Amino acid sequence: MPAKPKPNEGDIIEGIFALALGLYIAEGKVDVSKLRKLRAKIDPQKFISGSVKIEIAKNVERKSGNFPADIFDVNVTLRLKTSVVGVAFGSEFREKYYDKLKDYGDLDSKTNQIARNVGNSSWSREVNKLVNKFLENNKRERALFEVTADGIEGEKSKGLIKGDVNLSVYAIIKKRKVLIKGGKMAFSLKSDSQTVANLSPYHGMVSIAKYMGLKWDGAEKYKGLTEIARTPAEKKQKFMWIRKMYGDLTKELVNKAKNKKIFTKLALEFLSENMFGTDLALVVDIRKNKLKEINPSDFNVIKENAILTVRKKSSNVGGQLIFHDETTKTDLFQLRLRAEESRNFGKFYLEVKPGLYSKTKK
Questions:
Q1: What is the pLDDT of residues 120-141, one digit of tens each?
Q2: Spatial contact of 209 and 218, defined as CB atoms under 8 Å apart
Q3: Which of 348, 48, 340 is nearest to 218 (CA)?
Q4: What is the rounded end-to-end Cα distance, in angstroms, of the chain?
Q5: Domain boundaries, the chain
Q6: Model-level pTM greater than 0.90?
């Protein structure tokens, strides 16, 4: 009998953030006790056959200053992986944690970070812009806010769509819902993770080589990596090829970087596509002691002024190629290879570095 999958805080945090987002729209704040109560009511077994809809607010009045009050309805729809989120919702959560005022792993700290950073965070400021289209337009209106977190559906996009949590905002006009202008937002959720793309070594390296316009025969030269390695000798050959392919790729990229203007443009476009996706998702990395974000608009400012150089850093299981911005004197992102023959494990990562995160505004 296969072992039960371990709970995954990355998957769980998508559901928690979606509920927090719904509460924030309805009340202008995130009440952690209310959020925990909502989690306790959700049966994660229902995710197996479909989604769970939670009515956060119905006919709730929200008002700003002397403007007329508006009526808000807020719904959250969740569809997560039951096998890895069950500990954080429903009966298991109630019995093990909720009734004992505890939480699984670092979820208590991370939930508090979401609530604590409301007002200072990019995500809450961007949501406020949509909310205030109703609150500050001198008309009494009815609005519907629909929040969805569907991790299962997101996997089908093959990396083109990055939003784990999505918000759609509608005006209710003559009992019909009409999407308002700019009324869609997407959020790419991370939990203590700087990884924005998790790729197979061969396909990941071929992808960036093609995007960067490298005149390199790696795709053909290492085509054997597309075949399954079964015997010890084949596995040994496989990891030798992975490391050699990565070495060849980094040499080609270092050479390409000599033309800084073209290299910078292509590298940042590749990063943007893999980080924000076609839905231009705002990246929210929720950690135990802080909340870190990458807002597409902030990234565009970096993109306009950056001048990239690269440097290599090796390790016993792979290595990194670090992309450094001469303008801000910070590292922006890196390519990283993990090739562990003993575990038959090979991955090619695209990871963000400190210089890329949006600055917190007080």
A1: 999 999 999 999 999 999 999 9
A2: yes
A3: 348
A4: 52
A5: 9-191, 195-275+294-356
A6: yes
